Amino acid sequence: MLRKALRLATSSVFTSTVVPTFLIYRIGLATARRLGQEGCKVIVSSRRQENVDKAVKLLTREGIDACGITANQRIKEDRQKFLKFASEKFGGFDHVFISAGVNPHHGSLLTVNVFNYFLTFDTNLKSNFQFIQECVPYMEKRG
């Protein structure tokens, strides 16, 4: 699935700006690296500035055109700040790879507390859905 997504995302590689969002380690960082290796410009984000700095430094050291900004995907104002940054930095973006997610509970669904249930729901589903909706106008501007 990831390979197919990468092929689609890089089909117009020299004109693509990709936003692998909100998790700058593991899947998010690996995706940013791979897309950058294919020639895409990438914008990374994390809630912590030191994580953003580390990811951008790593990617740019590898010759990837990368930048980043701090943002928390669950906070609407942060998502808007992120989208504005992406639009201003590279004139918009063509693709979004959302990798934000949490897993605060390890164990049976029957033992999860209400706080962790809603934290997971809000992060992994609700904020991702809202972010996609908020990305569309920016992507439509690019055609």
From TrEMBL:
**Entries under Pfam families matching the protein:** adh_short (PF00106)
User: What's the domain of life for this entry?
Assistant: Eukaryota
Q: Name one GO molecular function term.
A: carbonyl reductase (NADPH) activity
Question: What's the protein here called?
Answer: Dehydrogenase/reductase SDR family member 4
Task: Family membership, please give it.
Answer: Belongs to the short-chain dehydrogenases/reductases (SDR) family.
Q: Which organism is it from?
A: Holothuria leucospilota
What PANTHER family does its record include?
DEHYDROGENASE/REDUCTASE (SDR FAMILY) MEMBER 4 (PTHR43943), DEHYDROGENASE_REDUCTASE 4 (PTHR43943:SF2)
Return the InterPro entries for the record: NAD(P)-bd_dom_sf, SDR_fam
